[in-house]
Specification:
268 residues; alpha/beta; 2 domains; four-stranded mixed beta sheet; two-stranded antiparallel ribbon; 10 helices; 17% strand; elongated
């Protein structure tokens, strides 16, 4: 199995603000793929949002544009395509840029290279999975006790109380030994590393995305197209098909085939 990368870009306006200043968020993720050679697939999907929140809709952004990028040329090939597509969706006019992703190091490295001034946010679902890893390490045979233990910590995570969460995990590790202590320490180090990316209360207040749900959906759609039974791709063949798929999804099909009508990417 080879690996793939996806990313998501979303311009937004902070909630409860009437000025027409936009923000833009970038969400990045990855998935596996079928390949008949040694190279993996690197893919990126971007979703653009830009514009103001209407007066009666103060807590969410409105999607005005959507774009997708995919490539098998690795992170280096992805980097420039990702930036170019983000610029098509208003990056230069964005008052603020936000990157949402899981904890993969390559994602934050790419962010620093192409979106150096962006705020970074750890996907809430991935963060909660690391808390669940601690809960299951403490109560491997008792799901009820695991749920009871994790409930107050999930609340602290959701409320953005990262210092309190780290303090609880530190105190817990001191009371444990061997494998359980190591499990807690591993996750404590994870949250310590991403502590500046976990202000989910501020995200909700501003109407910004807290996670990469849109990217997960796009990832599944691409997997459905390129991981069907019996499909194994050469690098050149896969790149060509991804290019066509991406032109269709980005509503640019007419640039390849001017005589054709504009297709609906959601009916592909």
């Amino acid at each position: 199995m080879a690996s793939a990368i996806l990313a998501d870009v979303e311009p937004w306006l902070p909630a409860r603000r009437r000025k027409r200043r936009t923000g833009e968020s970038v969400v990045i993720d990855g998935h596996s793929c079928h390949a008949d050679d040694a190279s993996g697939r690197q893919a990126a999907a971007l979703h653009g949002r830009q514009g103001c929140l209407p007066p009666h809709f103060q807590t969410r952004s409105k999607i005005l544009s959507r774009g997708t990028v995919m490539t098998r040329q690795g992170v280096d090939g992805l980097r420039d395509q990702l930036l170019a597509e983000a610029q098509r969706h208003g990056l230069a006019q964005a008052a603020r840029v936000l990157v949402v992703a899981d904890g993969a190091i390559w994602i934050w490295n790419l962010t620093g290279d192409r979106f150096a001034q962006a705020q970074q946010r750890l996907d809430y679902y991935h963060a909660s999975q690391h808390l669940w890893a601690v809960a299951h390490a403490l109560h491997p045979q008792d799901e009820v006790q695991a749920r009871v233990w994790i409930r107050p910590l999930l609340r602290k995570l959701k409320d953005g109380r990262t210092p309190a969460l780290l303090s609880d995990l530190r105190a817990l590790a001191k009371r444990l030994r061997h494998k359980k202590r190591q499990a807690v320490e591993n996750e404590r180090h994870y949250f310590q590393e991403h502590r500046h990316r976990m202000d989910y209360t501020a995200a909700r207040r501003a109407g910004e995305p807290q996670g990469s749900g849109a990217m997960e959906s796009t990832r599944r759609q691409y997997q459905w197209r390129f991981k069907r039974p019996g499909q194994f791709w050469s690098c050149a063949g896969d790149e060509a098909w991804m290019c066509l798929e991406t032109f269709w999804r980005n509503r640019r099909w007419h640039l390849l085939f001017p005589h054709s009508l504009q297709g609906n990417p959601y009916k592909n």
